[in-house]
Amino acid sequence: MFRRRQKEHLIKTANVLAILGLVTVALAVCIAIALVLSYVTPGLPTVLITVLAGCMFAGLWFVLPLRRR
């Protein structure tokens, strides 16, 4: 693979798949938070806390690393 000069393609593909995996995990956690909170405190608090959790994931996993570049 490395002698065929495919290293760059491999790294880009792995990066895209890792980002898609992070997005999937963040969505699953946010949906789980929304599901649990909908039984505990239905209504506006559920939506606000779920959106806050989604913003935290986006900020810590995507915005912060892009700012460090």
Largest sheet: none
Q: Which value, in Å, is the CA radius of gyration?
A: 17 Å
Query: Uncertain runs with pLDDT below 50, 5 residues or more?
Result: none
Mean pLDDT, rounded to whole units? 92
Number of domains: 1
Q: Please tally the helical runs, counting DSSP H or I stretches of 4 or more residues.
A: 2
Helix content: over 70%
Distance between the termini: 29 Å
Q: What string gives the helices and strands in order? A: HH
What would you call the structural class? mainly alpha
Shape: elongated
Beta-strand portion reads under 5%
Instruction: State the total count of DSSP E strands.
Output: 0
Commentary on this structure:
The chain is mainly alpha-helical and 69 residues long. The protein has one domain (7-68). Helices cover 86% and strands 0% of the residues. The protein is built from two helices and no strands. The protein has helices spanning 7-40, 44-68. Helix 1 packs antiparallel against helix 2 (44-68). The longest helix is centred in the middle third of the chain and has 34 residues, at 7-40. The model has no long low-confidence stretch (mean pLDDT 92).
